[in-house]
Design brief:
Blueprint lengths: L7 E3 L12 H6 L6 H7 L3 H8 L2 E4 L22 H32 L1
The structure holds protoporphyrin IX containing FE.
């Protein structure tokens, strides 16, 4: 089935083996709007007449959503990833300070003894 000359739909299944341009190009156009592909080749008037033999019907364009009704897949990082990432960053900043503080404290108490 081909969406050629959108919104007209043509079923070219019986034509696959007879198509002078080969079946491959037709199969590449399956289930998409092949209007540009068809026109770019510069098909003859006879080709356009033959096309009418495969006419199935029209797509009811009112059923096509204006916005695609799918959502992009969510980011791979889990939702908790953000907060744990923050904790890691905080620790990366605080840990060297803590070690430095511990080193100074040890030095101070070590001298006292
Ligand atoms: C119902 C749809 C189609 C019909 C009835 C059809 C019919 C034909 C016919 C009769 C020819 C011989 C040349 C001519 O008379 O113009 C032809 C050639 C060709 N068609 Fe189609 N065609 C269809 C769809 C497509 C689509 C979707 C493509 C996609 C690109 C395509 C690509 C070609 C190519 C590449 C040639 C060869 C042109 C050449 O060698 O000069 N056709 N087609």
């Amino acid at each position: 089935c081909i969406l050629n000359n959108f919104p007209q739909v043509y079923d070219v299944t019986p034509f696959l083996e007879e198509h002078p341009g080969g079946d491959e190009v037709l199969l590449l156009a399956v289930e998409k709007d092949a209007t540009d592909d068809f026109n770019d080749v510069g098909h003859s008037d006879s080709a356009k007449e033959q096309m009418e033999k495969f006419y199935v019907g029209k797509v009811d364009t009112s059923t096509i959503p204006e916005q695609p009704n799918y959502k992009l897949p969510a980011q791979t990082t889990p939702p908790s990833g953000q907060s744990s990432g923050f904790v890691v960053k905080l620790l990366q900043f605080l840990l060297p300070l803590l070690i430095l503080g511990a080193a100074f404290a040890l030095q101070y108490y070590g001298k006292k003894k």
